[in-house]
Predict the 3D structure of the following.
Amino acid sequence: MGVSFDKQVVLVTGGTRGLGKAFSQCAASAGATVVLNSTGDDDGGATQSINDAGGHAIHMPGRVEEPETLIEDIVKRLGRIDAVIHNAGFVRDKTLRKMSNEQWDDVLAVHLTASFRLSRAVWPYFEDQGGGRIVFISSASGLYGNFGQANYAAAKLGMYGLARSIAWEGGRTNISCNCVCPVGATTMNSANWSDEDKRIRKAEYVAPLVVYLAHPDCQESGSIFEASAGSYKKLRWERTEGLNLFPEQEPADLNAIAENWGKIVDFSETEHPLHMGDSLERMYARFK
């Protein structure tokens, strides 16, 4: 038997077009009742297309920056909510020197702050039901940075820090949270792409990973993935063995840093801390 979302209610923000529409269709095809959220009343026919294909979908508009009423209305109408895929967002690209406070604030609000508020709003329902799944749609811009996207990159990597914290806090109550950094062709991002790029980067090729992370059987939490063109990859932190001085026996000063810079940044030998405690334990191990 394949993966089934029978009796599961999944909210997809920004779920009526682009990547979000692909996520909505994928979840519905697996049996979920999908709530497609968009800012305005026009869903572009996305909800009807799912229902016409035999799925179950409803459209509930609302601003993700103020999601509390949306979550409450979903539970009132459908009786439960089992997963949230936060995909909604926009860009306000500008070089840092020219970026206004409003451009910075607006982008962080719709991506990062909305992630926090959505998570907080669904938390008591998840606890009462015995668990729930949260998936944040992050971006390679957050992982690697991008010219003219200081606001977007900061918000998208911030989502990963939030997901890591949710993983810790939600672990005992079966609440998980993960991030996916997708690249998929949509009308918003592919105007200058070649036909070949559009062919191999279809949005529906990203959707299976995102939707699987929203399934109750998926126990992954606090992780971040990249997905595009049928490739699905998990990322992790890596750090160098670095410079490890004994400050009581040798100078730990500016000269030591300058003279050993090559060793500090040398990735020929590395380690992969799993969490903050593991990071510090490895750092202090030489004193034991």
About this structure: Strands lie at 9-13, 33-37, 56-59, 83-86, 132-137, 175-182, 224-228, 231-235, 239-240, 270-271. The mean pLDDT is 96.
